[in-house]
């Protein structure tokens, strides 16, 4: 086993005295999919923000390629090869595919003050990279992003991240707002990214989707890691019961405490 591309050790985070995360340790390797599972309120969003540089951890350390890393901003995380694609892809509906693909890093042509955005080149590269992920319906770089399906917009964002050198790709609930066919297409794109050697962190509450593509799994419950296992070590029912049971027991304990206080 090669060293992990990204390693978290003892990560904790509190907000105004409330523990959002407690002692989270994870590893993700190149060419593998780590599925981060948890229901709403489990701490997934806070952990994503720490990995992508929006929050600094309160405790613990982050290592990238075996070296200690500290992120003061998302730009720092991006510079270390960590890219995050959120639920709706972070795309711009009124832009063309090529322009959206290169926003902030536009290729140009011409000389000196007469340099202009190279629309043709941008479109060709964007279409090529999307097609490398299996999106064959998109053939025109001038096509408006708003005319793409949800899965195609996710593919555009993922293709962009991979093209610009992402070694770790964090996908935040990429299938949550999609139909069955679109979700299946996004999962195929996840497998394509894995085949390119990218370390993928798939953040989801959908156990079925996770088990279709995951190599390694971690379950969060109320900010703590409840389980950590590899493919084949747990059944779908066991994972679902763990996620539901952890939340249910916590709610039951709170309810019993209220009843005892009332008595």
What this model shows, in words?
- The protein is α/β, with parallel strands linked by helices and 263 residues long.
- It folds into 2 domains: 182 residues, Rossmann fold, CATH 3.40.50.300; 56 residues, no CATH class.
- 37% of the residues lie in helices and 25% in strands.
- It has 8 helices and 12 strands.
- It has a 6-stranded mixed beta sheet, with helices on both faces. A 4-stranded antiparallel beta sheet has the order 2-1-4-5, covered by helices on one side. Strands 7-8 form a two-stranded antiparallel sheet.
- β1 and β2 form a beta hairpin.
- α4 packs across α5 and α5 packs parallel to α6.
- It starts with 5 loop residues before the first strand and ends with a helix.
Q: What's the helix and strand layout?
A:
Elements: E1 6-15, E2 18-28, E3 33-37, H1 44-51, E4 59-64, E5 67-69, H2 74-79, E6 82-85, H3 97-101, E7 108-109, E8 116-117, H4 119-132, H5 150-163, E9 168-172, H6 180-195, E10 199-204, H7 207-213, E11 216-221, E12 224-230, H8 236-262
Parallel strand pairs: 3-10, 3-11, 6-9, 9-10
Antiparallel strand pairs: 1-2, 1-4, 4-5, 7-8, 11-12
């Amino acid at each position: 086993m090669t060293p992990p591309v990204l390693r978290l050790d003892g990560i904790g985070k509190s907000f105004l005295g409330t523990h959002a995360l407690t002692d989270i340790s994870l590893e993700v390797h190149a060419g593998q999919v780590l599925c981060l599972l948890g229901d709403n309120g489990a701490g997934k969003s806070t952990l994503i923000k720490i990995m992508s540089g929006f929050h600094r951890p309160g405790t613990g350390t982050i290592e990238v390629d075996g070296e200690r890393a500290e992120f003061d901003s998302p730009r720092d995380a991006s510079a270390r090869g960590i890219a995050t694609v959120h639920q709706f892809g972070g795309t711009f509906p009124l832009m063309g595919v090529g322009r959206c693909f290169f926003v902030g890093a536009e290729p140009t042509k011409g000389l000196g003050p007469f340099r202009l955005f190279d629309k043709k080149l941008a479109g060709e590269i964007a279409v090529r990279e999307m097609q490398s992920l299996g999106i064959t319906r998109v053939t025109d770089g001038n096509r408006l992003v708003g005319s793409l399906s949800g899965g195609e917009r996710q593919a555009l964002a993922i293709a962009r991240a991979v093209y610009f050198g992402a070694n770790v790709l964090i996908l935040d609930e990429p299938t949550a707002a999609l139909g069955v066919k679109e979700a299946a297409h996004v999962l195929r794109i996840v497998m394509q990214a894995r085949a390119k050697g990218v370390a993928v962190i798939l953040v989801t509450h959908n156990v079925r989707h996770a088990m279709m593509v995951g190599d390694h799994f971690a379950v969060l419950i109320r900010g703590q890691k409840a389980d950590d296992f590899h493919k084949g070590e747990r059944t779908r029912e066991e994972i679902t019961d763990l996620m539901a049971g952890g939340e249910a027991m916590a709610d039951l304990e709170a309810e019993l405490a209220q009843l005892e206080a009332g008595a």
